[in-house]
Amino acid sequence: MTPGLEAQLMDACRILFPTAEINREFLCYIQPDGLKNAYRNRAWECHPDAVGGESDRVRRTELFRRSVEAYKLLSDYLKKRKPTIHLRPANSPRPAFPQVKTIGRVEGEQYYEGSLPSIELKIGLYLYYSGVVSYQAVVRALMWQRDLRPPLGDFACKWGWLREDDVAAILRATHIVGSFGERAIAMGLLSQSQLNIILLHQRSMQQPIGRYFVLNSLVSEPGLRHHLRELTRHNRLVRESRL
Description:
Elements: H1 3-16, H2 24-29, H3 32-46, H4 54-80, H5 123-129, H6 135-148, H7 152-158, H8 164-172, H9 180-186, H10 192-205, H11 210-215, H12 221-242
Helix pairs in contact: 1-4, 3-4
């Protein structure tokens, strides 16, 4: 890591963890869940529709922008960071891993039977290619996650980037091919940078897709944790095979 990148990461940590003592050790041991929680808290503290005057709104908007950039920088760093290995003492007992419970298949749905593809996967497709859940279950999980995701227009209105009649106009503009955000850009109502900020904030608040499979008894909680570990291992091997 270059000194310049380390300084940027330290500054990003100071934005999202204002009360923490930021040093190299903090940077080495920060975890994705802790980062996401810190970003959520910071975003709610400073998002533009919080109580305050117009001058305070400008300050909050700038702090919100910096928080989004800090979260993106640290997220990219954590994705590339090598995992910390904790060695187990030679005479210590082996940890007891929970037994993975197998849930029965749903009759009439399509299950995959074959080897895992040699590509990086996300948890939904990994469970499908592992034969754990059906293709239909993955589609339902994606729809569930999408339905629980806060609408882009809600954020844009709260932050003063769109008005309610703007949202209605975007929804009516079915002649413009693309998503809500793409339509808003084509109509000149949002900039690309504004859309990027909203999308990042929206993704940080959505439910993890693995939760759907647990809630619907398609995989047990210990089973999901087991498959997440195996997914991490699979994706690492795929990346190493490209080197």
